[in-house]
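Example 3.
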Amino acid sequence: MINENQRFAQAIEALQQRFGKQLSTNLTTRQQHAHTMTWLENQPADAVLVAHDKHDVADAVKICSEHKMPVIAFGIGSSLEGQLNAPHGGLCIDMSTMNQILHVNAEDLTATVQAGVTREELNHYLRTTGLFFPLDPGANATIGGMVATRASGTNAVRYGTMKDVTLALEVVMPNGEIIHTGSRAKKSAAGYDLTRLIVGSEGTLGIVTEITVRLFGSPECVGSGVCNFPSIDLACQATIATIQMCLPIARIELLDPVQVKACNQYSKLDLSELPTLFVEFHGTENSVKEQAELFASIIEEFEGSNFAWDSDEQARRKLWTARHNAYFASCALRPEARGLSTDACVPISRLAECVTATQADIEASGMLAPIVGHVGDGNFHVLLLVDTNSEHELKTAEEILARLAYRAIEMGGTCTGEHGIGQGKRKYMEKEHGNAIQFMRAVKQAIDPNNIMNPDKIWF
Amino acid sequence: MINENQRFAQAIEALQQRFGKQLSTNLTTRQQHAHTMTWLENQPADAVLVAHDKHDVADAVKICSEHKMPVIAFGIGSSLEGQLNAPHGGLCIDMSTMNQILHVNAEDLTATVQAGVTREELNHYLRTTGLFFPLDPGANATIGGMVATRASGTNAVRYGTMKDVTLALEVVMPNGEIIHTGSRAKKSAAGYDLTRLIVGSEGTLGIVTEITVRLFGSPECVGSGVCNFPSIDLACQATIATIQMCLPIARIELLDPVQVKACNQYSKLDLSELPTLFVEFHGTENSVKEQAELFASIIEEFEGSNFAWDSDEQARRKLWTARHNAYFASCALRPEARGLSTDACVPISRLAECVTATQADIEASGMLAPIVGHVGDGNFHVLLLVDTNSEHELKTAEEILARLAYRAIEMGGTCTGEHGIGQGKRKYMEKEHGNAIQFMRAVKQAIDPNNIMNPDKIWF
């Protein structure tokens, strides 16, 4: 019986023989391919493979399967809960050069892409087609990574999340077999929904190599605007009313005053440093006008002010670039600190209560932690800025995170709306899912009996 | 070692002790709870239990689990592929008296219902709230049954299918444990998507006892209309163009001339007996007008004619009642025959080709088989009217069904968009899913190791 070190050494030798220079064991490379986005510890794999195609991925998984060595897929490295760490070592497969857009079918509003294509690359490719891929989690993530974490972001309130826009997948399974799930048909009732079992499985059931996604017609007209509220509570109440009126808003983003200040400084804006909503309307010219007018009448009831909207592309771009840079803007508020972005999601009726309780908790703890959120979905983010040299601050931050997760779950929501569980949120799984976890584990065990696919993620 | 008969006898005795008069072994009752909708053989269970609550279901499943006896859940009996048959006997659990609407949360646009609530009961309950549950598979199915088959229907083109509107489930698992999947939050990235694993699993993984669904605001204005085309092909082309223009149409239903004739006779209409689209627009008054005008301009390019639309409720109701009665209208075309309604779904770019090839196949075979379809989703139905005393007709019908399934799959679609696999379509699973089936089977084996939940459905 050989030990783990010997097994892994044999696996890496076999991988070197098959892949030559595509494989690296350089420490810096390995560290760059593990978790780098927060203060969670960086745990590199033993080697990094740059995969060129699905057969590379399948062969690598087969070798790892033979030697029972972990395999972790890497897209662009923007996951936030330690999904890329290799606590038990193993192989990291870098998918980023698998970046071909294989097929756009404008008639069916679908695109099939390799897993390493980023959402911006896809939209750049689509720019002359009148179509677009709406999902926008902030980071320029790969589509494969977005499948893995069940990503969503600012546009999800109108266009849905990755579970909604993913039609079909090609997946390398733990035994190295390549399977296809779903089809290009818009719906199917033929057997278990393996597509949605893989979406959000964080690389623990297989490695996605190709994805067929739904596309949408670019709206004829886009209007965007900003408005202020005297309190977070009133901003949330206005959001709730907007959703309840079934206004088909495309984006509705909350920024708390700390976040607005950060954006003003970082993105050279001059927004009032008050609880703020950034909104966007998609439709025909008439419909955008109708939506904006309805929105204006809604926020009036909640003391909303300074609402200005415009369909000018440049103004719009400036606004949303600032929103996308909110993470960096926040980090710049305290350059010596590291940021940890967490998220939670609640039924929208509980949103105001959950956000205000969280804000009060942050204030009481004396921490700096801007709040932003995709509030139309009841989803919001807290970016904790922590001096990681301070044990006290780390402990305080962990406690805030835990209280937020529990608060969201107790309000009938979830400890994560879009970031996933990774390593960081495993401790909340039991609270959220209770005895259902045993069936998730049973599925994992059935599909990956040797536990080689991204082990020790989602649960302990 | 006792044999199966003895095991089942022991199980039924234990069930009788626990449930008394809730349990029936009457043959007629048993037959009424098996498959009755097509010419597929009726295969009754050994006993029928009327469940009053989740604990009844859990206790019954526990008893069946101990004795390794099959369990099949029954909603209202409207499934079309033999999902309710008990080829190996066992217990049928009738969920229809579990029909309480437990909670409507208007603020969150959600409702939580027991599995036996029908979609019409839910909408009747909601009538004063300004909200509605849009999914409409034709039959007045139970919400639990709609979860089981991943149902959709006429409104799915705008509002999605059961996979899209189901937020959370309570499920009795094969070991009798009650679990909860999902939450009332609109989205989550916390672990495997057990909700969507259960949706469409046709009772093979567990029995759904409660469902939380999304509701939608009743549209301020509803416009509906009818138009004709010189050919099925042009009607499909007009549908494709409508979807590609991203017109947010709420319903777009194709009826072939045979179906129009049947509806005219059955529902006392005087529609032109030509390829016909029934359409519906939801929105504000302005938006409905805008949609109808855009639609009128689209169909003009495809020789569409006689387009008349109206927001009058009575005219609308007459039209959609006729559409809903299409099944019975078709059966009335040949009263001595039995109908078998099949469905297929293709990428919309292939719809015209798939429907016309199918129509040609039916004509060449000399069969009577009206075509209707939720064509906005690329989904259509063929209702084969067959004299079941004729071996020749049965064989011809089976061949048409098989060719249709293969045609749809080869066009990048699926052998069923909404009816499910049941017993009737198991033979197409391998063609459609290839080596992915082994992982569906692995999931089934992991969750239901004794294969007691609706055995011999979805696969052989």
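Chain B has four domains: 4-94, 101-217, 221-327, 334-431. The two ends of chain B are 26 Å apart (CA to CA).
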